[in-house]
Amino acid sequence: MPNALNRAIRRSIALYEIGKAGVSLICHQSERSFRCTLGADALVPNGYIRELLFRHLSAQASTTRVVRDSGDESALELAPVYGNEGMNMKKVAIVGAGQSRYGDFPEKGIKELFFEAYKDMVESVDKGMDPKRIGAAYVGNLGSGGFQLGNMSALVSEFVGLPYIHTVRVENACASGGYAIISAIMDVMSGAHDVVIAGGVEKMTDVSGTKQKYWLGVSGDTEFERLAGTTFAGLYALIAHRHMHQFGTKREHLSMVAVKNHKNGAQNPKAQFQREITLDKAIKSPPVAYPLNLFDCCSTTDGASSVLVCDAEIAKEFTDTPVFVAGFGTSSDYLAIHDRPETVTLEGTKRASKKAYDMAGLGPGGIDLAEVHDCFTIAELLAYEDLGFCEKGKAGQFIEDGRSQIDGDMPVNASGGLKSKGHPIGSTGTGQAYEMFNQLRGTVQKPTRQVKGAETGLVHNVGGSGGTVAVSILRR
Amino acid sequence: MAHVSIPMYWRTIPQRYKMIGQKCKKCGSVNFPPKGVCKYCNESSDFEDIGLSGKGTVHTFVMIGAGGAPPEFVEQEKAGGSYPVAIVELEEGPKVIGQIADADPKQVGIGMKVSTELRKVYNEEGVIRYGFKFVPD
Amino acid sequence: MAVGISGYGVAVPRLRVKKEEYAKAWGSFRAAGVKEKAVMGFDEDVLTMAAKVSRRALSSVPISADRITRFAFASTSAPYGEKLLSGTIITNIGAPSDAFVSDHTTSSRAGTEAVIAGMEHLRSNPEGCTVVSAADAPKASMWKSIEHGLGAGAAGFVLSKENLIAEIEGHASFACEHFGERFKSNSEDLIQDLEVRKFAQSSFVGATTKAATNLMTSLKSKPDDYAHIVIQQPDARMPATIAKKLGFDPEKLVKGSVVSEMGDIGAASTLVGLAAALDSAQMGEKILVVSYGSGAASDAISLKVVGERRASPSVRTEIERKEYIDYIQYLKLKGAIR
Questions:
Q1: Tens digit of pLDDT for each residue in C224-236?
Q2: Is C173 helix (H, G, I), strand (E, B) or coil?
Q3: Is residue C63 part of a domain?
Q4: Strands (E), chain B
Q5: Does A238 sit within 8 Å of B60, measured CB to CB?
Q6: What is the second-level CATH architecture of the domain A92-207+298-475?
Q7: Which of A96, A308, B80, C336 has the smallest set of CB atoms within 10 Å of its CB?
Q8: Could B68 and A338 be called an inter-chain contact, meaning their C-beta atoms sit closer than 8 Å?
């Protein structure tokens, strides 16, 4: 997207944000600051503009500093100060990514799956990489049915030939992978290690149906939500029903997400379900938790993925076309949906993405494509809204208008998403980054799902029903 | 495994049997189920226990059908058919999740008035776990 | 000052199964005079029903739960063989933990047993307040004809010396050794009936008529003094036989008869029947309640209506709130399919 257009969008967002408070003023947003000039007709209490800007800026940064102040608020310029500013943090790049096939593989356990993804990642490094350079591995995993809860990252690391490194299992439910990436990024930023793996793996098809439900039910609010008789499908259905009631979102809109993602997944040789479905079939599939039916829910999947994160200064040693980390953000939320002020909003997504946008110095308009967390179809609709791709309540129209199709203006889940590609919990976040790495470098396996000319992409990974959210923005 | 132990369940008896909530002494809001720090003002942990009426309005609901029930509730779904679970906005303010019992599914809707009743929630290790459910008011 | 009923409440579970369902499944239906019966939902048991009627009884009187000094629970279908049952109920209704509680669980006469025990407490604690709650849903093997009539229901009473609806004039009992009729062994939760019919019937009729006669003798009352008589209702025929034997006009059974629409509700039978009679009784009318429990014992209680305050909902309203299920659903809910 041309930079001039980008900037225009950013400016209009700033105007909108400020305009919401009902103040008539002229506002400009430069790369890193807000400059406001009061309109001649503006009648506002003294200190109001300062308060407003302060609140606006401090929501996205650790502190706010005054750049210029006329004293009477007729000209005021404030700038956010980010946590890492002036601290000489390193910039971070991704130079390799790999993924196992997603599906059900009775012959493979977590070690073998992780190895498959790891090998694929090592082979993807254009100029090669000596594994001895890897200093750390962050491995997303929910516990693979309880098989190896303790020390599992050491197990999979030594299995692939990486004993004696800094390694940690990262667990934030379905957002484990997304948080593994951010842990790896922060590690490299800090200078602790310069080449780090962010991986994820899950083995979901080994356990019996009942045990699986016992296990998968661990990530919501167990005491009240689960003991009210709900699984995750039920929780997302509660959100979906309220969304339909509040905004007129139709059941068909949910199914449209499934149809789109299956269409994309049919073009992904590593996806679990490589077949298209019709809207009619999706709408008529058996109910699981009304209003959600079978085709609104992702499946259980075995799989692993892995990305190679390094100090941007040494990225060229590995490839001429690295992908850079432009921004990232995370946010937790009240675990139980009933504790949240808004049922129809994942506040974690809003806050995590705001941090990521601000760090990257752009808004949703600056994103060319996104991989979002569609564990249930309603989750993708929520993501459109909470990531700012459309207004709250307008996600149904957004999918209906085809805007998130591969040839739309905001392609979402070109990989097939969790819905069609599969959702091996710990691997989902790193799998999204694998897809984005290839999309931004133009190296997806089948050109039919390549988003043309994409420069900047967003990956969005949600834990449970929104209790944790990780967002990263990658740029080529 | 998401297993709620007997002592863990027992500790929530005031909520499950008697709808005991916390009134924040700073902002006056009512938390239910309880929090360490008031979820409304995020400042105070000075609370007064109050018994809630159990009356409220359905904010949203879902019909849990075949395959949608957690293992503790599979038998219930099989024996009694799909069951509604709702988030109910209580008249004292907080929203809370719970099953709706004793209602014709066609009668359940957003905005429906409900009140609480003691019901069997589930049975584990031979111990019946009782707790509130919502019924049409 | 007299002791009596200050308030009451009833509950009938919403589900019903019709006798025609039995006829379809088994070729016949063996509970005389029962047209349909109430069935608990999957998430109900006698404790949840007892909690509900205790709350309803309390909400009908200006007495708050923290004044309860005595609580008595009655049922033949307790969910545990050993464990305090009243604890679940008093916690739910908010009764004080220092109230004296008792569980009465081995006889279909347990309902009146609990009333008498609760009433005795008030004699020594004149300022006290008793809540009695009887809930039952007996279970038997689906292969036995005794199972056909088994229903579900509950009634709760607040007993005190204040705001009386009905004064308890007196009570009398009869107890003796008898066996081989309805019983439940220690090894399973299903009631047995060896079907030695005449032998069982003679115990039932003998014990109830003796208790009722003993009471009328001590109160110097006679059948004509009573506007209503409520007798243990395993079916509709047994109370009619006993009423006739006692010299009561069978019409006096009508107001307190619930078995034809609820089924045999064991320990709750006479108390739900009493509630139904209170729902329509007039000021000054007398009611005779006669329970029976195998093994064998009977209690008779004489009441006089002194107030026309009614409970809400009424027994009639509860009976009319219903949803029919088929026999397969009934089997699933009763846990008969394993």
A1: 999 999 999 999 9
A2: strand
A3: yes
A4: 20-24, 30-31, 47-51, 56-64, 83-90, 95-99, 113-124, 127-136
A5: yes
A6: 3-Layer(aba) Sandwich (3.40)
A7: C336
A8: no
